[in-house]
Write a structure and sequence with these properties.
- With 964 residues, the protein is of the alpha+beta class.
- The chain is built from 31 helices and 24 strands.
- Among the domains are: 223-346, no CATH class; 774-948, no CATH class.
- It is 41% helix and 13% strand.
- Strands 1-18-19-17-16-2-3-15 form an 8-stranded mixed β-sheet, sandwiched between helices.
- It is globular, with a radius of gyration of 30 Å.
Length: 964
Amino acid sequence: MSEQTPTQDADDELKKLAIEGELPLKAVGIENLKESNPKHKPPQIYLHPWFARRPTPVSRLAVLASILPEDVSSDQLLEWMQIGPDHLESGIAEYVESKKATEASRSGNFEDHYGYPRPFRLSPSKSEIGELHQELREHWDGELPTVLDPTAGGGVIPFEALRYNLPVRANELNPIPALILKVMLEYAPDVGSLEDELEHWGTEINEIAKERIKPYFPAESPSHKVLSAACTFSVPCDDCGCDIPLVSKWWLYKDSAREGIAVQPFVNEKENTVEYDVVRLPDDVSKDEFDPQKGVVDGSATCLNCNAPMDADRFKEKIADDDFEYELLGVKYEKPGESQGSYRSSTTEDEEAMEAAAEHIKSDLDLATFLTTEIPEGQETDRLFNWGFTEWRDIYSPRQLVTHYEFLQAFEKCRDSIEEKHDEETAEAILTLLSITASKSLDRNSILSPWSTKKGYPENAMGGKNYPVQRLYVENNLTEREQGYLDILEKITESYEELVQFADQVEDPDVSLSVGDAAHLPYEAGEIDAVVIDPPYYTSIMYSELSDFFYVWLREYLEDIYPNTFRAPLTNKEEEAVANPSRFESVATGDKTSKDLADDYYEQKMSGIFSEIYRTLERGGVMTVMFTHKETDAWDTLTMSLINSGFKITSTHPITSEMPQRLDTRGGGSADSTLLLTGRKPLEDQDPESGEPTLWDDVKSETRATAKDAARDLLDSGLSLTKTDVIISAFGPTLGVYADRYPVVDDEGNEVRPRKALTEAREAVTQVLVDTYLEGGAVEDLDEVTKWYILSWLVHESATFEYDDGRQLGLGVGIDIDDINSKMKIWRKGSNNNTIQLRSHDDVRVQDINKSPGDRSSSRPINPDDMSFSVALNAVHAVMHVYEAKGETEAWNWIKDRNLHSDSDFRSVITALLQVLPSDHHDWELVRNLAVGKTGELLDLDLDASVFHDDEDDENRQGNLDDF
């Protein structure tokens, strides 16, 4: 489904582009989902960690559709995108959709089933590039259009443009992705294969480092190789002085709930210390005797010797005061001929090796002062300050720091030889890829790197896009093969060689890469024809704060090679386009909170970036924005930035871009779909403030109608969108209406921001969802609290969702969600305070009916003895409790005593909960039992039988609206 917004009359002579017409969104969305398989990712993903990348298919679509004429057929577009089998010349979209429909019953892998590889594995042939270029030259007055990505990040957009041999311009502020872009856009096409060179020099570096690191990872036998060690912190007990290891679970490797390898602690009373044995369950000990699931820390810590408690603030205070020890729990090693690795308890030699590493740091002058760069305060880094970690060296144990330092010294030892034996660009490429290898190894060897009990080796430190200090972290011997330096180098080499292969069809690439602020681009006015931009994600990711983790080390490796890029001690945070409230806490006032100031900054920054893009574009040029954020505030600032810079919104397209998941397992504010929002630079400049103001009352009804029409079209489109994404996708055409009527004012002449239009759109689409998915119940007649709870489940399809989304929904039904939280305990804040978790009936809501009134908890807001309830949901939660506590007959009597069987609101809530709760939710099972048993006879609900069965293929089930 596509939505087009009419352009102004002055721009009717603009030559329309494919992005402004109908697009094969469903087929491309299917390819996005295929690429989301974690085992089959594009090669650039493995070059180096980065925090946001779009899939290849949607990036290709955005690039090609932004430069091809409107009349290009879907079949031709898909063929050039490498979607569909070679033998198929028409009906490609229908073919892809039919294959998706039969995917569950396929034999073989995806490639066998679909009849062609994932698109990222295929570059266009020279003949296809020739055909495409001919079409483009006819549309662009004999020239190939120059494509710019001004915030290029992980590089998917410019690299896909490069694969079609287009003139490419890419810019990035942050040095980490700038380095990735350098490899993708310059070294891969220009230098070519480096497989032999990387293997040679990587092995040389590893051997040098191994000699220096070997004493710190002693083996019990000359034939054994120590791979890694599981470690934690211990602090002294305030009462008895015994060690308290800060471990939440004792598993090292878990085969099942009762089988695996674990660390069993025991108190050495003579030494007043805790010691550890590595044991196998159930061979050495049964789970009934020792449960590895129960560690020492569960919020607070408990001393194993005297059982004295220690709260989290206290043990963090001790670590901050350097009153702690690095504790070795167990060692993983490899025997000859063994592939999985074995585990053993630590030895005296292991303990001495840890102490030797610490002594080495103190005695080596360079190492003693190495990496003392201060960690800056910030939204993500503040959690490090809570542990007293103030310098970047603090997030490494002594063995970890020595290990990384010795690899840096080995690199420096080889550097002169590399530069002598290779030409300048080749040497630069080799040194860059070797540095990236060292940087990537940080991710699995720090106190932020968790030990995986499923895999038995270190996980990524930065996988969660924050700075989580691990209670069970890994000291990784990088000189060995499991997740070691050569393993990482091998994967990087494979990825680089794939990129070389993908760029093989490019002849004389026209590529320019700049590193700097996107609000100040190094291009002439009118130099660019098309811009495709995936802008920074508002509040979702604090890129610079997170990338400092890698930057401080890469600067040690590459400052001399890229002096301009790695000159500063830390990454640039002053010019970063994100809404980071922590930057404004010191200047916030009563009138402007830190969030308000952060929002203002983001809007100003994005306005500056869009204005600069506007300057560099030729007249009639196009900009396609890829946006994946849920928050209304993010869309509000994005829209004002576009309007302020002079663009005319001409089309919007929603497309599935991520594997839909529930937010409570994913987190974050990004949507599962991407909205492609396209604007054109008019043939004549127009002051966005110059038009006559439009009254909001004249825009409001059109806004709601447009949003409803968009939602209905989306629901009929077959696109795989969650209900939240239906709302977000309707934002595009809604904003088109607002932009066309801008400036918009209220009756008193005050400016009406885009967020008001988006709030109307959210309410209108929610009503469409109610009409579509809720039957047999008058939800509109329910009290506001109950309505909010039901609509929250309907829209978000999860107990957990973003606070802002819940707040907006509350405003739509007329309640303050903070007020109902304190009074009714209908929701609670998630662990990061930015999310809402809806409470079920048994989550501190209903007083225990089996207790006398005087013994019940007064903090629970629902008294099951009450004869009437002002909030319909409370009555339903109360009867759920009665049903569980006293059985079906008592529940039947309870309902009858209160005449609830004839209460339309009570019946509506029962009906609605059956339709919005997931069928695996305990409350759903209770509501079903109430509806179909003896109580059901009393209620006599008029419901379709399909409501009661759990069918994963039902299109109205909770989850995706349609899985194609």
